[in-house]
Amino acid sequence: MAQLPPKLFSSGIEHASFVTSYQILKKAWNVISSNYQDIVTNDGVGLCWKVYKEQNPDLTIIAFEATKDSSNLQSDLISSSDLNKKKNFHQFDFLCSKKNPSFSLNSTAFSLFYDNIQKLDELKSKDYLNHSHKIRWTPEPQIGSPVRPVRQNSSTIRMNQGTQRTIV
Description:
Blueprint: H1 16-21, H2 24-32, E1 40-43, E2 47-54, E3 59-66, E4 77-79, H3 80-87, E5 104-106, H4 107-115, H5 117-125, E6 135-139, E7 155-159, E8 163-167
Antiparallel strand pairs: 1-2, 2-3, 4-5, 6-8, 7-8
GO molecular function: carboxylic ester hydrolase activity
InterPro entries: SAG101-like (IPR044603)
């Protein structure tokens, strides 16, 4: 009997109860639909974003919205190798691995990102994104899953339901 290839990614349903138990989806939806009063709205080129920083616990939600006419969406893709060669754009290189050395992006989505790169870089430097630590939620490593090593100076806290919290 032929052996199935290893499972590369887990389905969201495996981690759904964990995500919903922390109200992350509800809070994110409230930011998207502007149900919070303390939202900072920023406008870019064909793009706007809303930033909400919750004081306790330390949580920042950034919701992006395309303001360009959505009927002009292009379905063509741009490859990561083209980004690197033609535009010397290496911001997405972290998505590559030995097994998957290249990837493709929707060209309209990339154009929005590229047109707003300076404002998005400024967004990274704002006070509401500068924390003494960063928390990254990642699934429990599964057989065959692409697991990237965590920096040595970070600590990892195992959570229930097959999830870990990594403090970098």
